[in-house]
Amino acid sequence: CDGLGDGVLIEPLEPAAFALDQLRVASFGLLQGSRMRNTKTEFVSCPSCGRTLFDLQEVTAQISERTGHLPGVSIAIMGCIVNGPGEMADADFGYVGGAPGKVDLYVGKEVVRRAIPNEEACDALVELIKSNGMWKDKEESAEEEELAEAVAA
After folding, report:
1. Helix spans in 34-137 (H)
2. What's the number of domains the chain is made of?
3. Which of 51, 105, 146, 151 is 20 to 30 Å apart from 28, CA to CA?
4. What kind and span of H or E run contains 150?
5. What keywords is this UniProt entry annotated with (predicted)?
6. Orientation of helix 56-67 relative to helix 118-131, angle to 10°
7. Beta bridge partners of 99
8. Looking at the structure, do residues 111 and 84 belong to the same domain, yes or no?
């Protein structure tokens, strides 16, 4: 590839239409969505159906709040054991409803903890990410992002 198209320029029609921070977030979001540059955590979630064993939207928001600052990490949040493991196979970590009130945690395609009570599962996921050496504190991630932006500029 010749490198053409590796950058993104978003220019508002009116200069005051968007704040610089909004343009930065949109640019990095486009690069993340096209898998050209991972600057934040990637979340994969299935649509909820009758088999979903927990409030998928609420749990996804909780996990995103705790882990959204981990660039290059992908987390799949799946509501049930029926389709969850197959749909989350490319993720680094999986959070899957295994039974009513219980969650199973995965590293890649391998289940590593089963039947974790819903109330403890988010903390257990964070500990799993830490034990696999992929955790960074929010401050550390923010410093790395600032450095990457300065290098890219």
Report:
1. 56-67, 84-87, 118-131
2. 2
3. 105
4. helix 138-152
5. 4Fe-4S, Iron, Iron-sulfur, Isoprene biosynthesis, Metal-binding, Oxidoreductase
6. 30
7. 102
8. yes
Residues 95, 24 share a domain: no
Sign of CA dihedral 143, 67, 107, 90: negative
User: Do 94 and 33 have their domain in common?
Assistant: no
Does residue 32 sit in the same domain as residue 49? no
Note the pTM of the prediction, 2 decimals.
0.76
Domain span including residue 17? 1-39
Sign of CA dihedral 83, 89, 90, 91: positive
Residue for token pair 């830490």:
130
CA angle, 108 as apex, 104 and 113 as ends, to 5°? 25
Q: Bridge partners of 95?
A: 77, 105
For the four alpha carbons of 45, 48, 52 and 57, in that order, the dihedral sign comes to positive
